[in-house]
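Q: Hi! First time asking for a complex rather than a single chain. Here are the components, and I think there are two in total. Is that enough to go on?
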Amino acid sequence: MLIIDRATYDGIVAHAKRDHPDEACGIVAGPEGSDRPERLQEMVNAAGSPTFYEFDSTELLALYKELWAREEEPVVVYHSHTATEAYPSRTDIGLANEPGAHYVLVSTREHGNKDGSVEFRSYRIVDGQVTEEEVTVVDALPPAPTSQGEPDGR
Amino acid sequence: MAVEVRIPTILRTYTGDQKSVEANGASLSALIDDLESNHPGIKERLVEAKDGSVDLRRFVNVYVNDEDVRFLGGLDAPVTDGDQVVVLPAVAGG
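A: Yes, that's all I need. Here is the structure of the assembled complex.
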């Protein structure tokens, strides 16, 4: 299950609407191993296309270097479909390289740039297998567990 | 001295879960061959045969000292001891 806060959810939807009819893409970063999508990072779709998205290679490196420095990982990888349903395409599945991430698909096919609801769905994509999961939108993520004084087992 | 190669999550099955490994080689292609000798299987994930020659896979990005190797000669890109090499799969789809 993906648990995401309302502001981040709305941010992804707004990005998808703004970039329609091109596909929008980005990630939500969170502390490694936490499964907490905390920090929305919109990315430029270097393909600038209604049927394809790709992070710019230079921006991709900058993004990952920042993640590593902050000990974060991409908890969510999102992109939009602008004419089809919010389900991973064959290309999406073939290129899914973050087995630990929630792959979020948003479809703007119904209302485009205008107000109105969008499909917002989440998947795990591991070894070419797609598993849809429930999305729960909360007002705020629960407080992060504090990790002071971890016993070291000695 | 050697070259430090940063390995993405998806390829850590080949490196025993190590985030980075050391390798040697004067060019990216030699470096990948050296990686392959210590981590069998990894080369196939990085390069592919195309039109009779071998090239980096389209959706794999490799950087030498923060520069995309596609701007440095691809597999011929020179590599020197102490360089930092990063492998990152493209984040892309349709």
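A: Chain B touches chain A through 17 residues (CB under 8 Å). Let me know if you'd like any chain examined more closely.
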